[in-house]
Fold:
Amino acid sequence: MNVRYILKSRPSGRFSPETFERVQDDLPPLADGQARVKVAYVSLDPAMRGWVSPDTKSYLPPVAIGDTMRSLGIGIVEDSRTDAYSTGDWVTGFTGWTERLDVAPGQLTVVPPTVSMEDYMGVFGLAGATAYHGLVKVGEPKAGETLCVTGAAGSVGSLVGQIGKALGLRVIGIAGTPEKCRWLVDDLGFDAALNYRTDDLDAGLAAFAPDGIDLHFENVGGKPFAAALRHMKAHGRMVMCGFISVYNGDRPDEYPDMTAIIRRRLSLKGFVMTDHFDTYPAIFAELGKLIAAGKLTYRLDVVDGLDQAPVAINKLFEGTNTGKLVVKVVDA
Ligand SMILES: NC(=O)c1ccc[n+]([C@@H]2O[C@H](COP(=O)([O-])OP(=O)(O)OC[C@H]3O[C@@H](n4cnc5c(N)ncnc54)[C@H](OP(=O)(O)O)[C@@H]3O)[C@@H](O)[C@H]2O)c1
Structure:
């Protein structure tokens, strides 16, 4: 018997118990040309809130009502009737919220068992790829510049700041709790951290970036984004990675003064990593070097059991995840 979660209804705010339905059914006998995968971990990502919205113009089509909830994941091939996969292969990609699934060649990517499966969901997964591609390829940082990153203690933001430090930037992080701000400065080597809930962001940015921000990496939107915009240097660049504060349909807690883009001749560029899957191996090679050199650390927040996924996903929107949020599904 296989357990999976389907999308039952589209939420109007946060994910709720009514959003998903637990389904138990039998997989059909494995077809020729397919492989059966046992899912070990699934990744919980802010983008999943967008995937259940009815927006048909986004970078991925909406998850259909009644379909298995879409998610990234990693698993192990249990049985194979195709040359594309061998029993025991580790495979990653869009597994969805299910204990098992049958896949066709090309549907999931085989990865070597050289790091842990959890790491493939974090630093060697979407978060690491996003941080590196967004900062290095989109942001084009130069040593000596001042970088500001919001959502700084999250899985993407914490990697962005550390990669920035490794590249010789001055790094200011904006996060939501004193513990997260301490972690950024004391453990990750950020030059400064501001708590957007309690600190005066204008005073803090004026103090830590007196000449302005050269490069800004945006993960959350709202008040921290509005503050960063006020402190950008002329001709500064803004990498638009995410706007989690409005994914649930909330109005921004502060509207930015967009005239700053003109007055200070700023460049803003958005990107989505699903456009760049081909770049992942090269990025992971670079991240591996930074880890080996002791310049990159990360933390994982592992939730036990697929049944926890529908509730645990809201940790991302409450700010209670401490690191990359993943669900352990079944023992690999
Ligand atoms: N463009 C891409 O291809 C791509 C790929 C991956 C991720 N992303 C985006 O990157 C961002 C970070 O994703 P992640 O996976 O690394 O998640 P994460 O940062 O590990 O977790 C989400 C964090 O967002 C913060 N947050 C939640 N609601 C907020 C609000 N209203 N205002 C300010 N901060 C809020 C919380 O931290 P605090 O405690 O600090 O509030 C929370 O811990 C998201 O916007 C996501 O959509 C984009």
In short: The chain is about 25% helix and 25% strand. The longest strand covers residues 35-43.
